[in-house]
Amino acid sequence: MSTSNIPSPGRHPHCDLPGDPSLILTTNVDLGDDKGDILKRLSVLVAQSTGKPESYVAVCITDKASMIFGGSDAPLALGCLYSLGGINMANNGKIQSGVTDVLEKYGVTENRIYINFFDMPRDCVGWNRATFAG
Asked: How many CB atoms lie within 10 A of CB 112?
C-alpha cells in the first residue's frame, strides 16, 4: 500500500476523500412519474461534469413548490450545487445546460433556471460523523 493511501496521524480517514457533490433543485412544475428518472439523469450529469464518482453524488428535487421569479409564477427552477472541488466555469456550464435540457420538457425555459455553485471548504462539509477536514 502506498503512503498516499494512509491517512495522516490525527486526521480522520475521510479527510483524504474527494468529497460529495450535492445538487438541490426546487421547481414549481409537477415532474409526475418521471421524478425518479430525472434524479438518476441528474446524478449522472453531476458525476460526469465534476469528475467525481457517482457513488459520491447526492441529488434532491422538490417539485410542485410555491415559487415566484420576476413577479411571475410561470415554470421555474432554483438550484444549488455544493462540492469539494470540481466547481469551475466549464463544469458549471455543463451542469446548467444539462439541467435545462432535463427541465425544458416540463415547460421550464433556460431563462427561468438559476443554479448557484458553491466550492465548499472541507471543514464545512460533514459526513459519517466527521467533516472532511477531520
From this structure: 20
Cα separation of 80 and 104, whole Å? 18
Closest Cα partner for 79 from 10, 12, 22?
22
The model's pTM: 0.85
Rounded Cα–Cα distance for residues 129 and 3 (Å): 25
pLDDT-based confidence at residue 7 (cuts at 50, 70, 90)? very low
Q: What is the rounded CA–CA span in Å between residue 10 and residue 48?
A: 33
- Calculate the alpha carbon distances from 116 to 15, 35, 119 in Å: 25, 21, 10
Residue positions annotated with a catalytic role:
21
